[in-house]
Description:
The chain is mainly beta. The chain has 9 helices and 41 strands.
Amino acid sequence: MRNSRVLFWGLSCLTFYLSLFFSACSPEKNLILPAPVLGDGEPELLFSPNQMAENEDWIESSVISAPDGASRIGMLLDLNLHVSNSDIEQHIQVRGFNIQGQPLPWAAVEVTYSEDFSIVARFDPAAAVFGAQMRVPKSKSSHMSHITFSAVVPEPPGQESESAGDGSPNLKQHKSALSVSQLVNPRSSWNAKATQCTSYDPGKTKMAIHHTVTPPSSAGGYASRIRGMQAYHMDVRGWCDIGYHYLVSQDGSLWEGRPIKHRGAHVANHNSGNIGISFVGCFQSGSCSSMGNIVPSESSLIAGSKLITALSSQYGIPQSPDKIKGHQEHSGAWTSCPGDNLLSRINEMLENNITPEAIAPPAPASGTGTLTGIVWDSSVTSSPNDPNALKLKNASVSVLGVSTSPVNAQTGGFEFELPAGLYSLIVNAPGYQSKSVLVTVQNDQKTWNSVGLSPVATPAPEPEPEEVNQPGPPQACYPGANNTWDVCFALTPKSQLGVSGYNYPAGGPNSQQYTTPSYFLNLETAYSETKLAKNFVLNEFMQSYKGKFAVFSPKAVAHWQTIRNLLGTALYINSGYRNPKYNAGLDGTATYSRHMFGDAADVTAKGAASLNSIKNKCNAEGADYVSVYTSHVHCDWRNDALDKGFWAGSGAAKPGAHQHRNETDATAWVELSTHQAKKDHAVFARMRHSGFDEGIPWVKWHLVGPNIDRVVEASESFAFVPQKSGTYRLQWEVAGYLMGQETIHLP
């Protein structure tokens, strides 16, 4: 294909960035939705045993790709109730893959932590590995409930990110009605290891909100969950302590993590002065269903709000969105952390001015109770007790970390005998959306918790706007290098786009200016270095993992060139066009963002000119909306007349219109390690791109081959180990569009 390239995978690729991913060996157990971008951007594979593949007497994980080589393979295992840790510890094995994808021998792991149904284990290979895999005997698969698996270069304790402060813990604190220490359970309450941190962070000026990307609790409770995370951070990643300063559990308890006087390890390049607060659980839609409820509990949000208020008061940190952010909102962060279902609630926590009150830890549960209920179709009736209710008799119900069982084939009901406590209930049925809920089981009581599932929706086709009949395709023309307005592109009717990523929201502050474009620029016909103006190229106005189509206002490009001329210095565009689906994933609050209409850009001069001077020049150039942020200035011309080419299909090229082309496509492409695979060797693929990286790759990989049909989303790279002879087809989509495919043959 024109936009596909093959990379020679040799010693010259030692710096080739392989962000993540996985292999599969059987068609029944190969759908894996781990989330490298759920957490902090480190290469991690998150999965349950039923997502591992059988290979003779073993079940094997997928392959995880290691960036620039890894010197440690590690894991955190959650075990089921009534399982002895020693039953599985000696049976865990791992192996690495060299730069050519060749597998190294399987090796036993060193167990560094084992208690309360959790195990932390690691293996340090003799030389760097570029992929890793784990396995356990099939007979031990029922022992495990969840696995966090990684391949890393462990960091020296205390050196997780920025350089250390050079003084004592002289934290600037303000008086407050109630100190943070009165709110949280101290480290002693969860039997924390002694910290090894030595780097002091002299002032706290901001906060970062995270999720731990784990089940909400382990079979041993919240304290056990936090102890396991601390062991994983210290023994596998090589950190000096757990990375977060505070943790919030789903029952509303607050826990002290890394001592506040030390710099945290939670946002790369942004840890200095940054307080790390992590909610225990996983809250990203579509990626966390195997780990319990993907919606943070109201109790945890109230507790989080109280903690934020107390910290703000104690350290003089304004409760504002520019000082208290989700992890993904920090510049350079490649992550969806803290998950969309928690990110969307941060502003509510900031606006909640409840006076902090002590939150007592819940009393330990004792005894047993019964959890029972019915699974039904909630689209048919609102209650399972309705005479017309449709019981889903082919559903399955899992109590996370305990048991999985099909419902009663006659009644659609389920029942579990459980120790009293808080549980994650996960319900699945063919053709329905999975659902997870938190349920509290009381001692000597029967707890009813029926679950209604919604059918998987089939989106209705969007009505298409009428297209203007005219001779020849419409065009959009730009000033070009010489301001002659002769750099033109043929446009594609929206009716030919065909996917939901370009469905624009209805309405808007001014409906006339917020109408859906009728035509789009096809990026496969464009080239990234095409000069739209003297000092701006096409590449600069697109997000890196862009879709196939885009809208760029010619007038806005001309405005930016004028501003650049007035400032006399280079400008750098952090964000230009975003299609609606990408925009919703990046910032769900900006429903009518002008980035979708091609007349907005976020710009910086990287210190060569102040943000205020850029703001002033935007105002002088007639911008309709200008806003200064910490790292850039947003300017847009939302009231300019809509471009006739994109909205009316009437743009026309001037005589001699042309494009400036080079070898770099404006669309993304894939580099592949090999087309000719070897048995048991890993095949690596990586998405390459042009344009500014806004931190959220939107890539879907689809692998089809002998006994395998597997889809992985939201990853920059992909790895698999072909097991059967034949031809494998690897397809990739960006922003909902099939962008290309490669074939790999295993003799």
